[in-house]
Every structure is written in C-alpha cells, then in structure tokens.
C-alpha cells in the first residue's frame, strides 16, 4: 500500500500545460527520486501534493495521501496535513527561514500548532529535534537567529522543522543545490538516516542524477511535464532503455573533447598572484572597538600561463570568489601584488587599468542576474568594447556583436532582443559572448555552469573548451564541482580557509588527493558511475 | 529546482492593457487630463475675462450665466479656477523638475560613491528635510519677495531631499547586482554605470514619487498663495481665492467651495494616478491581481 499515490495528474496554469498524465507513488520508508530539468514540472508536483499551487493553477486527476484525496480536501484538512504528516524541505535555506525569529521558535511553532502542546513541551521537543539534526545545545542554543548560522546549518534547521512531527512523507525539493559538495554529502546522510529511523517516505526532487542515484530506491524521470521512465534506480540507470534517460546520464558525465591539453612550460606567465592577502574589517562592536578582522584570502600565490585552463576549487566561503574579484581588480588586496602580463594591476586607477581590462573578462554564475533587464542584447554584449582605445562606430559595433554571438552559437538577430527572452543556457552563452568580444587573454568564470541543467551544462562546457582551443583564452574556473574541474582544466588549485592547500595536474589531484581539504571534496563529490556501481553491488 | 518565475519585462501594449483595467489609474488619469485640459483651454478661451471687474454682478451664487457664481468683484469663479489651474500646475511641475533634476543625481552619486561622501551628503539632506517645508518657503519668499518664481524655487528646494533619498535607496538595491559587477569588470566608471544601468532600473520608482510630489506641490502652492506669498493679483490662484473667500464664507460659501474642490480633486487625481502607476509597474502587486 503506497503512502502517496499520484494518478493521471494533469496541471495547467493559465493556458500552459505544466504536467500531463503524471504518475508517481511513494511507499513508507522508501526514497523516490524525481529527476528532470528546469521547467519539467518537478517543483509543481511537490506543490500539488502540498496543495500550495498558485491561484491560476488547475489540477485534474487523483492524488491520494494515506487514504485522503488531496485534490478534494478542504483547506482545513490540508492545514492539518501540512507540517504534520507531510513535511517539506526547500532549496534555499537563506529564504526558507524567518529572519526575525529564533531557530527554537521556528521549530517549536509547528509542534505547538499541530499538537496543541504547551510552550515548554514544544520547546523540549524542538530541542531534541535540533540535537538530532546535528545542532547540539552547547553550540547552537535555541536562541540563535538564522543569520548567525551558515548555509548548511540553516538547512539542518529547515529539516528539523520539516521532521519535527515525524511526518509520514517528507518532500525535499533540491535540498542540497545551494550547498557545496561536502555539506551536500552531510545533509544527504542526515536525510537518509531520518528516513531509516522513522520509516518516512521521502520524495527527493533534484536535477542532479548522481545525487538521486545515491539516495533513491526508485526513480521517476520527468520531461516537460511527462513521465519518461520510472522504475528501480539501479536498473533504470544501468540499462538506460529510454533515450532521454540515456541523454541525461551522458550529459551528467560529459567531458568535452579537448585536442591538446596545454603544456605549462612556456616562459612568460600571463597572470602572477604574489602572496596576496585580503582582510575584511570585523564588525563594529562598539563606537570605538571592532572585532578582529576576518582574513578571507591568506598569503596566496599562483601563476597562470597563456592559454592554460586552471580550476580553483574549494568549499563555499573558502575565499575563492574574493580572490577572483581581486584578480579582476574589482577588489583591492590588503597586501601582496597581482601582475597581469608582467604589469601590476594592484593600486592602479580605473583609467590605467583599461589595457588590462581589455584582456581580462568575467563570466558569472547566475545567468539571470548578470544582465541588466532593461537593455537589449546588442548593448549588453558590447559593454566591454568600452575599454577599446578607438571607439567602434555603430555599424562596427553591431558587426562585432554579431560575430561574438555567432561564436557562442547564437543567431545574430538575437541582438535586438531583451535578456528575458532567453533561456538560462542561452543567457550563459550571452555572458560568454560578452566576455570574449574584446578577444581577452584571460577569462575568470565564477561557477559558470552550476545554475544550469545537465544537458545545457554539457553544451556550455563544450563551448568553453572550443573557445579555449580556437582563441587560446586562458581560463580560471572557480567551482566547487569537481566534475567541472575534471572536464576542462589542466591544473587544479585547492583552496581552504583562504589558503591554497594543494596544487597540481587536474587528474593527479582529483585521483590522489593529499591534503585533507582535497580529500574531503573528492570523497563528497557525487559521481554517477560510482553511484550506479554501488547500487548494482547492493542488489548483488 | 527553484521556480524561476521570471517576471517578463512587458511590452508597451501589455502595460497599457493592464493600465486600463486598473480603476485607480483610469480615474486618476481622467481627472489629471481634465485639469490639464482646463489649464490649456484657459489660454485661448474662458467664459469671462478674469481681469475685468463687473461690480454689478458681485457675489452672485450659481446660475446659468455663472456656473460657479461670482466673487466680490463680480469676476466669474469658473474662469478664475481655469486660469488658476495654469498657475498651480506650472509651479508644481517646475518644482518637481527642480527636485528631480538636483535630487536624483545627488542620490545616485551618493549611492555610487558610498562611504564618507555618501554619509555627508545624506546628512545634509536630512538637515534640509528637517525644516518644515512651508515655513522655509515663507522664509524664502519673505527674503526675496513674493511671486510665482520664488514659490517655485522654495517648493523645488524641498523636493530635492525627497528625490535624493528615493534615488539613493533605489540605487543601493541595484548596485550589488551581478550585472553591475559585469559593467565594472568592463571598466565602466561609477557615473557611466549610474546613467546606463542604475537610472533605467529605478525610473519607475522615480515616476511614482514624481506624481506624489506633484500633488504635494499643488497643495504647497495653494498654501503659499493663501498666505499671499504665491502668485500676485490680478493673476488668479486657487489659494488666493480661498483667502478672499474666508471673510465671506457665510454670505458667499460658493467662493470657498469651488476653489477648494478644485484643489481636492486635483490632488486626489494625482495621488490615484501615482497609486495606479505603482500598482501596474510593481511586480508584487501585479501577481495578486
């Protein structure tokens, strides 16, 4: 007897069909993985089960939870279910908690509401739950506020809230996407333990095939609102009968073809970072006193050759983005020098930086936030042309934009559109077009593919590799994702707590990590091959 | 996956269609257009000449000949309200212009520079803001003499800190965005980024604030001319008409009612317009409707 049974579910919002004849079931104690790319209707499925759909949505079909017809239930019945029998964990731990309430209050809130327990009793249960998710009393008293916790700790609080009343079903919508790999592994372990302890059903929604393979007993693959394939995880992924399943699996393991890896024996380095340190002043504790300053980057040195592709990997908060900003001269080091083509960029005025800016460009993580929504593509992509000594005429400018768009695989007619008319992957192509329009020597890419779907991500990685070959651009990839590092870089630098703790050839470092930080990253990184192999082994 | 509910930038026709479904906007828009039309028509035609005194017709109530009655000099009130609209609108409009012209660059500059410059500018701003606007306007007109031009300057100066604050707050929300970082990485200066990226993104905010300040400007102008510090006779103005009516309230109430209504309706219309624009352009309220 299934706990959750979705039959023939169709969902429309306005005139748009979101789900079509969706089927899915979760048994008690079972982990069901729901996989699909963005826009495939994964989150909408979760919201349907919770009946938290937007007003314009119309659902038809049958959703039964524990004998209750969800689509026909009254709002009162749903309120009793939500947070009690069905718990939900959201993707973004930063926004899923109320910033003005303590973590204790937030966990106790649901307990008091559903069990009518007294404040003291509810708080005691909340305390136990926080202990259970790994936030012990000594270090995390209930009076802590969300902003005092890190991302991983906040996600633990969210899980504590969802599991406080021992729900029969837990829905986790991309619970680890906003976290780095080491935290991801910890949170997944926690979820797995909670499921085993109380025979809870878990509906795990993710775009990451490797994560789902590691966690789920059964898997449902969704594409554009339709179930493509469903079944036992190990069998589905090892046989890969459905073409879309195969496509997804291949995209997750995609390694772009790179003709020649770069040899690093050239004489003149392109970029030299010499014992750079960056301190942030501590918070002002009183009018005259400040807390000790925080060292984000600590005595880092590195050098890059022209055309070389280097990955800077590390957990979130290790200082890799700060280092990147200093290399791009968007932030000033507290001490140390950064040289680009032998010339120092530190301490120069914006006018003196122009020649360096021309040869140094950036691609950001978020393809949605990195474009001004009110300007057309032509202007956005042409933005770096501003550093050229000779201003191009309008016709020349259009010509250059058209060329850059062509190089990243977009149509030149796209230049008269606004950024919102493009998909996430296309926007990342625009981002790359903007970065290469001045023919730079170095492109710094800060998590350039982590916000993209696997198939799009494979295409963007291919594009990066192709441009590296064709234009000889050197890359500095900043990432916490080791598969990206493995796919397109020659060298890896592992950063931990502001220092570079390990460096070397990509394959050597990732296969035989020496430092503890590197070992932790490698061990935690989800790997589809490994996960499938383990699943097969378990089943014999 | 996150729900990338991407609020599409709307096409002009889409915004217009939405605008005409919004009651507040339509009402405000119609009132504003009527008042503006009244002011424009007054240049070419008014029922009577407002400078000609006809003592025989003095203090008459509403009639077919004089819809809104006449004042104590026998002038037609409707004609005076029409001509007075000119004055009110001109003063308020130019004052908003001064406020925007100075305040917005100031606020954008403060946001772009940050640090001490920002702090210093905003504290001076607070200082100007702390003076009761009308009182200082009286001071300015007292020093430089009464008249429409001085009223404009006085009201304009007190619009500056309002726009500076709104512009700075809006700009501060835009500056940490990634596309600004991208523009900086492309080597653009703070001024250039402010003009190209920040201002277009806070334009709607400023538009809404502009309509509200416009309404407040009309009120301030009426206040100043009521005190005899605005437009000088024989140029009719709404505030002045109220002052003249004050002593005759019992015998000729229409002398106060109609100019008073003109002020109330205009301010109401502009506020509705501002509300409507804010509703239409704000994605949050858009989702609820």
Automatic annotation (TrEMBL), chain A:
It is a peripheral membrane protein. Its main location: membrane. Coiled coil: none annotated. GO terms for molecular function: ATP binding; ATP hydrolysis activity. The keyword Ubl conjugation does not apply. It holds the Pfam family ABC_tran. It comes from the Bacteria. One of its GO terms (cellular component) is plasma membrane. It is found in: Cell inner membrane. GO terms for biological process: peptide transport; transmembrane transport. The keyword Nucleotide-binding applies. Keywords: ATP-binding, Nucleotide-binding, Transport. Gene3D superfamilies: P-loop containing nucleotide triphosphate hydrolases. NCBIfam families: PRK10419.1, PRK11308.1. Belongs to the ABC transporter superfamily. This is ABC transporter ATP-binding protein. The lineage of its organism: Bacteria, Pseudomonadati, Pseudomonadota, Alphaproteobacteria, Hyphomicrobiales.
Automatic annotation (TrEMBL), chain B:
Pfam families: BPD_transp_1. It is found in: Cell membrane. One of its GO terms (cellular component) is plasma membrane. It comes from the Bacteria. One of its GO terms (biological process) is transmembrane transport. The chain crosses the membrane at residues 24-45, 89-112, 124-145, 202-229, 249-274. PROSITE patterns: ABC_TM1. InterPro entries: BP-dependent_transpt_permease, MetI-like, MetI-like_sf. Coiled coil: none annotated. Keywords: Cell membrane, Membrane, Transmembrane, Transmembrane helix, Transport. It is a multi-pass membrane protein. Belongs to the binding-protein-dependent transport system permease family. This is ABC transporter permease.
